[in-house]
Design goal:
heterodimer; A: 237 residues; six-stranded mixed sheet; four-stranded antiparallel sheet; B: 391 residues; alpha+beta; 2 domains; nine-stranded mixed sheet; two-stranded antiparallel sheet; 11 strands; elongated; binds adenosine-5'-triphosphate; binds magnesium ion
Chain lengths: 237, 391
């Protein structure tokens, strides 16, 4: 792969079986994402944003075309290898947070580190820092059910970034947040992007998120219709 | 190790739901052991009663004696061999003379086996001493409660006894019920009357003779018996042993049903758990857990469930097992009418092997029923699991 590219997509087609027929969700997409990108897929509902993110994350497989993530051509990887890729290098932020209900805030954030076999003291340091970053140090022992929507999403963000992944895939991370919380969350992600040059790919139709993006990919009906770079987005935000 | 820790955390986190599952599984554990223990206790009790009231340590039989064939009784009597008589004199054995007879209680005729027994004996737990307490003209007779009921006889009632003596002539005399014994052993109750040995010998003109001689428990068998046949406890209880063995398939079915109930409970909660936790499964996959790890996690949760159930069964069942094994379980029904030897207080027996085999069996079954539903996870697409979609 090109060293600067964290994701390379070539002629990606995705169709879903629908009745006896196929529904084309992605219609031949070719894209490159560079290391340290802060990019958003925007577009109307049903345009294929989540589908594209899922394929990049190895959660779903392409029908046609090639997707290379972190130097691995996904077509040639096993389920296990894709899981490992996610475990070691990727963070997910879901619209619905998807926190583990029986775990505390601390345990939820600690989980990816446990999976990676990070030693205890290192774990403590990383978890504490990630939770501090999202401003939830006073909620360490709370369970997801006891959190507000904004707090839940911030825990999900802490969980996605705690292992300092190379790539974070965020699907509508602000959909359930009010304006204040949305800006708060985006600012955290921007600072991470700067400090650790973590790459971010968002799927969103939230104007507040778009205000922070360095690159906006317009997806309509399974096709990229516009790929624009934004100069100094922070000044707008 | 991580899987184990996570499984434990998930179970503890689920709180009440976990404990309810564990409780149900523990209950089936306890039931399996209790039922099996009761069965074994019943069998052991029946055997013990038979040994105490009928067999003692064993017996020396007249060579022609065959209890299943009443016609042998006419010839199956003789003076026992000297060494056996020595045992009787030493109070270590008791002679019994058996003959066919008929009684006429309340004008009816009932064929019976008439057994003359030495009243002063403590080899067989039979209230034979009551025979010696009577001194009157009639023949003192002890019968069992079941026999008394059937013949409609009460203590003090008299009736005619008719028998065939050694010269094969019929003779008759009046018998009197001196005692009605309650025994759990129907074999010494129904169709039998007990009279003093000397009276029997006189009535039958068989002075000094006996049909068999029972000897005390824990006594070494004699080496020389002059043609009399030595019968040990194993031989004398062989019918009963065969009956217990014949009953075994039934016991096994019960065991299997209880096991299936336990397994179904776990299977059900496991299915439900996977159904409810689709989204969690998707999340685990997105966080980089492989399918097989997730399957392992859920299977371990099921297995831990069983392990906790085992501990709970120990905590709840332990005292229960101890109390029932010590004090027995009172039974509300009198089963003796059904021809069964069952104590009014049933004392279950719990051999160690029962605990071990139940634990092993349940553990294997639980692992299987935890694993089977978890296998569905391996077929799940991460994206569909994430949507909480049921595949
Ligand atoms: N598993 C599936 N089976 C069938 N069709 C699907 C499946 N997943 C997605 N689709 C279809 O693909 C299209 C794109 O879906 P996708 O979820 O990617 O849209 P989206 O851009 O994320 O929309 P939204 O903004 O509402 O989240 C939709 O029309 C959807 O119905
Ligand atoms: Mg979507």
């Amino acid at each position: 792969m090109d060293n600067k590219h964290i994701v390379e997509i070539r002629n990606l087609v995705k169709h879903f079986p629908m009745g006896g027929d196929h529904f084309l969700a992605l219609k031949g997409i070719s894209l490159d994402f560079a290391v340290g990108e802060f990019t958003g897929l925007v577009g109307p509902s049903g345009s294929g944003k989540t589908t594209l993110l899922n394929i990049v994350g190895g959660l779903d497989s392409p029908s046609e075309g090639q997707v290379t993530v972190l130097g691995h051509n996904l077509a040639g990887t096993s389920h296990k290898q894709r899981a490992e890729l996610r475990r070691l290098h990727m963070g997910f932020i879901f619209q619905t947070y998807n926190l583990l209900p029986v775990y505390t805030v601390y345990e939820n954030v600690e989980f990816p580190l446990l999976l990676n076999g990070v030693p205890a003291d290192e774990r403590k340091r990383l978890v504490t820092r990630a939770i501090e970053l999202v401003g939830l140090s006073d909620k360490l022992g709370s369970r997801p059910a006891q959190l507000s929507g904004g707090e839940g999403q911030r825990v999900a963000i802490a969980r996605a970034i705690v292992k300092e992944p190379t790539l974070v895939l965020a699907d509508e991370p602000t959909a359930n947040l009010d304006a204040e919380n949305s800006h708060h969350v985006m600012k955290i992600l921007v600072s991470l992007n700067k400090e650790l040059s973590t790459s971010f790919i968002f799927a969103t139709h939230d104007e507040k998120v778009m205000a922070y993006l360095h690159r906006i990919l317009n997806l309509v009906d399974g096709k990229i219709v516009k790929d624009e770079l934004v100069e100094n987005p922070e000044l707008k935000g | 190790m991580l899987t184990f820790k996570l499984a434990l955390k998930n179970l503890m986190g689920a709180g009440t739901r976990t404990w309810l599952n564990v409780f149900v599984t523990a209950l089936s554990f306890i039931l399996i052991i209790l039922m099996t223990g009761m069965y074994q206790g019943m069998d052991a009790h029946a055997k013990q009663v038979t040994i105490d009231s009928e067999i003692a340590g064993g017996a020396y039989w007249h060579p022609l004696y065959d209890p299943t064939d009443p016609f042998t009784l006419e010839d199956a009597h003789a003076v026992p061999p000297p060494r056996v008589v020595d045992l009787v004199d030493a109070g270590q054995a008791v002679p019994v003379l058996v003959a066919q007879a008929a009684i006429y209680p309340n004008g009816r005729i009932m064929p019976v086996v008439m057994k003359g027994i030495l009243p002063q004996q403590d080899i067989i737990s039979l209230p034979s001493a009551k025979l010696a307490e009577y001194d009157g003209p009639s023949i003192p007779v002890i019968i069992g409660r079941g026999m008394a009921k059937r013949a409609n006889l009460n203590q003090g009632d008299t009736f005619t006894i008719r028998w065939l003596d050694a010269s094969r002539t019929y003779d008759a005399d009046e018998g009197i019920v001196v005692h009605i014994m309650s025994t759990e052993n129907i074999k010494i109750d129904f169709g039998q009357i007990w009279i003093p040995l000397d009276r029997a010998q006189a009535m039958l003109s068989m002075a000094g003779e006996a049909t068999y001689v029972s000897y005390a428990q824990n006594l070494e068998p004699l080496a020389e018996t002059d043609g009399w046949i030595h019968r040990d406890v194993g031989y004398l209880t062989r019918d009963m042993t065969a009956m217990i063995e014949a009953k075994q398939p039934g016991t096994n079915v019960l065991f299997a049903i209880l096991l299936a109930l336990a397994a179904m409970g776990i299977f059900n909660s496991q299915m439900l758990s996977i159904f409810r936790r689709h989204k969690e499964i998707g999340t685990l996959m997105a966080l980089g857990m492989t399918r097989s790890k997730v399957v392992g996690l859920f299977t371990t949760e099921g297995g831990l469930n069983a392990f906790l159930a085992l501990i709970m069964a120990g905590v709840l069942g332990g005292p229960l097992f101890y109390l029932t094994a010590t004090y027995g379980i009172p039974l509300p029904l009198d089963y003796s009418e059904m021809g069964l030897i069952i104590a009014s207080r049933l004392t279950p027996i719990y051999p160690l092997a029962l605990f071990v085999s139940t634990t092993i069996l349940v553990s294997i079954i639980v692992t299987i029923v935890s694993y089977l539903p978890s296998r569905r996870i391996a077929r799940m697409k991460p994206t569909e699991a994430l949507r909480g979609r049921v595949s």
